[in-house]
Write a structure and sequence with these properties.
The chain is built from no helices and 28 strands. The protein has 257 residues and is mainly beta.
C-alpha cells in the first residue's frame, strides 16, 4: 500500500496478517480492536504511526512484530493493552509507544523494543510499565503531565548518550523497582517526587542520577551510597540498589511460521 490506511477497523479482530506499506496514513487505524500475531512493516518516513487507536474503547495489541521507519510512533493512542510485541524502530525522532491521554486502562508489559529513537512516552497515564526490554539510542521512558506510574522489572539499555527515565513536573511515580538501567548518559532525572527507587541495578551510566538532583523531596536519600549487602551478598545502598555488571549476552531471535 502507498496511501491511506491499509486497515481501518472498529471492534474487529485483526490477526495473522503480513502488512507492508509506505503509506502517508496509519497502517492500522481504529479502536476497540484485537490486533494480534501480525507482521507490520511501515516504511513511511514522516510523522505518522503504524498503529493508531486513540479513543475511550480499549484495543488489545499483542504478539505482533512491528518495524517502523517513521518519526511518529509504532503504537499511538490510549486505552491500550500492549504486550508481547517485538518493535523495531529506525527513526531517531520516533517513539516505539506513545500514550497520549490521561487514563488508567493501558498496560505495557513484556514487549521487546529495539530502536534508534525513543522508547515510551506516557502522557497522564496511571498504570504499571513492567517486564519490557527497551534498547534505545534516545530517551527510554518519558513521563509527562500528571502521570501516576509504577515502573518495575524492566531492562533498559542505552548507547552511552541520553536518558533512561525522565519524569516531568507534577507527575507521581510511586516506585522504580527491580529494573536494570545500563549504558545511558543519565539513569534517572525527575522534576517530581519519586517515592521509592529500590532493588535496581545501575551499570555503566555516566550518571545514575542526574547531576544536581537533590534527595527529598525528589528522590530518596543515600541512593548509590554502599552501606550493606543484599540477600545475594552483593554490595548495595540502603534501598537495595546494586551497581554491578548485569552480564548481558546475545541470543539469536528465531521467528517460526
Amino acid at each position: 500500500s502507498s496511501s491511506h490506511e491499509v486497515i481501518t477497523a472498529y471492534f474487529t479482530t485483526v490477526k495473522g496478517n503480513y502488512i507492508k506499506s509506505s503509506q502517508s496514513d496509519p497502517t492500522i487505524y481504529g479502536y476497540g480492536n484485537d490486533i494480534t500475531e501480525n507482521e507490520i512493516y511501515s516504511g513511511f518516513s514522516g510523522n505518522l504511526h503504524a498503529i493508531y487507536s486513540n479513543d475511550d474503547y480499549n484495543s488489545i495489541i499483542e504478539e505482533n512484530y512491528i518495524e517502523d521507519s517513521g518519526s511518529g510512533s509504532a503504537i499511538y493512542g490510549m486505552n491500550l493493552h500492549i504486550s508481547n510485541n517485538r518493535i523495531v524502530g529506525y527513526n531517531s525522532n520516533s517513539y516505539a509507544i506513545r500514550i497520549v491521554e490521561p487514563e488508567t486502562i493501558t498496560q505495557i508489559s513484556n514487549n521487546i523494543i529495539t530502536t534508534s529513537g525513543n522508547g515510551l512516552s506516557i502522557n497522564g497515564g496511571g498504570f504499571d510499565i513492567d517486564y519490557n526490554i527497551i534498547d534505545c539510542d534516545g530517551l527510554g521512558i518519558d513521563v509527562l503531565d500528571h502521570s501516576l506510574l509504577l515502573i518495575k522489572n524492566n531492562t533498559m539499555i542505552g548507547n552511552g548518550d541520553n536518558l533512561a527515565i525522565m519524569v516531568s513536573e507534577d507527575s507521581n511515580i510511586s516506585s522504580i523497582t527491580n529494573n536494570i538501567i545500563s549504558n545511558f548518559k543519565t539513569g534517572i532525572n525527575t522534576e517530581s517526587a519519586i517515592q521509592e527507587i529500590i532493588f535496581n541495578n545501575f551499570w555503566e551510566n555516566e550518571y545514575d542520577l542526574a547531576e544536581g538532583l537533590a534527595p527529598p523531596p525528589f528522590i530518596p536519600a543515600n541512593i548509590g551510597v554502599i552501606v550493606s549487602q543484599n540477600i545475594n551478598g552483593d554490595p548495595c545502598d540502603p534501598h537495595a540498589n546494586i551497581f554491578l555488571d548485569p552480564l548481558f549476552f546475545n541470543t539469536p531471535v528465531i521467528f517460526l511460521d
